[in-house]
Amino acid sequence: MLSGIQPTADSFHLGNYLGAIRQWVRLQETHDAFYCIVDLHAITVDHDPARLRERTRVSVAQLLAAGLDPELCTLFVQSHVPEHAQLAWVLNCLTGFGEASRMTQFKDKAQKQGAERATVGLFTYPILQAADILLYQANVVPVGEDQRQHLELTRDLAQRFNGRFGQTFTVPEPHIVKDTAKILDLQEPAIKMSKSASSPGGIIELLDDPKASAKKIRSAVTDSEREIRYDEERKPGISNLLTIYSALTGKPVPELERDYAGKGYGDLKKDLAQVVVDFVTPFQERTRKLLADPETLDTILANGAEKARRIAAETLAVVYDRVGFLPPK
Ligand code: TYM
């Protein structure tokens, strides 16, 4: 199993946590799990070098604080394993221009930046993602709903390579947990919570001041009815709050609906704000402690990279051979 996350913000948000990281923590128990902080992906948009370095460390600390255990999984930074970029090149040469042009995340981001400013790196982003996955022969890739199309491309590329050059890659399956696959923006529950698209009021950042997060929950956009009921179509705001509540407490949504029968939106929001505070407060404490010891973080990453590289190098050697590169003497 493999998954990745970008170190592109000062903090992960609740969508990252509920859609992906929480699954990673669970799946490390049962799978041979590789988790990658994708810094090569992070430079596909404008970035500040010093902040990227800092954010990469903060990312590792948050993943460990969320429950990743370096004894159970392999946690590493993408740029520490050069095979990712090397395989990406080979896959670039198998991807159609039109095929890459159909990636909706690229179209959205490119449109936001303006066609002249969007980079070729942004265009080939999903192909690098395919390389991340295929290098480790992953069967399972735990992600949120927004990654489905990239996973489809990865599967197509694996099948294409296998068909053209002989069986080489495992064709991976996305692992998308329906209930939490798309956490919505609190202010605009028609769009997903996202570091690039959400307004500050719409996004819960795990490392933000808990009081500020509580306030955002209390100010979440809902609807003009009164009934607390899960209905994605007609009540996306309330449904999103119920999803978050249920995911953080383990209480099924129907039970929450029963608990809140006859109560108001304000009651639900107040209680959920407390649930969020109770979740992020110890999380922040663990993250701070981990960040106080960067030596240990770097050692975890060095061990992770070494383990990842062994497998990545093996796959890349087969790929280079299959495509006909002359081996160096
Ligand atoms: P990134 O960093 O944008 O997102 C990391 C993970 O968080 C999930 N996610 C969400 N899930 C539910 N609701 C949301 N609102 C929400 N927002 C984000 C994403 O689906 C993702 O699982 N392209 C990947 C990074 C990547 C990767 C890989 C993933 C690079 N290589 C290989 C898997 C395998 C991404 O979007 O990261």
TrEMBL record:
<dbReference type="GO" id="GO:0005524">
    <property type="term" value="F:ATP binding"/>
</dbReference>
<comment type="subunit">
    <text>Homodimer.</text>
</comment>
<dbReference type="InterPro" id="IPR001412">
    <property type="entry name" value="aa-tRNA-synth_I_CS"/>
</dbReference>
<dbReference type="InterPro" id="IPR002306">
    <property type="entry name" value="Trp-tRNA-ligase"/>
</dbReference>
<feature type="binding site">
    <location>
        <begin position="144"/>
        <end position="146"/>
    </location>
    <ligand>
        <name>ATP</name>
    </ligand>
</feature>
<feature type="short sequence motif" description="'KMSKS' region">
    <location>
        <begin position="192"/>
        <end position="196"/>
    </location>
</feature>
<dbReference type="InterPro" id="IPR002305">
    <property type="entry name" value="aa-tRNA-synth_Ic"/>
</dbReference>
<dbReference type="GO" id="GO:0004830">
    <property type="term" value="F:tryptophan-tRNA ligase activity"/>
</dbReference>
<dbReference type="InterPro" id="IPR050203">
    <property type="entry name" value="Trp-tRNA_synthetase"/>
</dbReference>
<dbReference type="GO" id="GO:0005829">
    <property type="term" value="C:cytosol"/>
</dbReference>
<keyword id="KW-0963">Cytoplasm</keyword>
<keyword id="KW-0030">Aminoacyl-tRNA synthetase</keyword>
<keyword id="KW-0067">ATP-binding</keyword>
<comment type="similarity">
    <text>Belongs to the class-I aminoacyl-tRNA synthetase family.</text>
</comment>
<dbReference type="InterPro" id="IPR024109">
    <property type="entry name" value="Trp-tRNA-ligase_bac-type"/>
</dbReference>
<keyword id="KW-0436">Ligase</keyword>
<dbReference type="GO" id="GO:0006436">
    <property type="term" value="P:tryptophanyl-tRNA aminoacylation"/>
</dbReference>
<feature type="binding site">
    <location>
        <begin position="15"/>
        <end position="16"/>
    </location>
    <ligand>
        <name>ATP</name>
    </ligand>
</feature>
<keyword id="KW-0648">Protein biosynthesis</keyword>
<feature type="binding site">
    <location>
        <begin position="6"/>
        <end position="8"/>
    </location>
    <ligand>
        <name>ATP</name>
    </ligand>
</feature>
<comment type="function">
    <text>Catalyzes the attachment of tryptophan to tRNA(Trp).</text>
</comment>
<feature type="binding site">
    <location>
        <position position="183"/>
    </location>
    <ligand>
        <name>ATP</name>
    </ligand>
</feature>
<dbReference type="Pfam" id="PF00579">
    <property type="entry name" value="tRNA-synt_1b"/>
</dbReference>
<dbReference type="InterPro" id="IPR014729">
    <property type="entry name" value="Rossmann-like_a/b/a_fold"/>
</dbReference>
<feature type="binding site">
    <location>
        <position position="132"/>
    </location>
    <ligand>
        <name>L-tryptophan</name>
    </ligand>
</feature>
<protein>
    <recommendedName>
        <fullName>Tryptophan--tRNA ligase</fullName>
        <ecNumber>6.1.1.2</ecNumber>
    </recommendedName>
</protein>
<feature type="binding site">
    <location>
        <begin position="192"/>
        <end position="196"/>
    </location>
    <ligand>
        <name>ATP</name>
    </ligand>
</feature>
<keyword id="KW-0547">Nucleotide-binding</keyword>
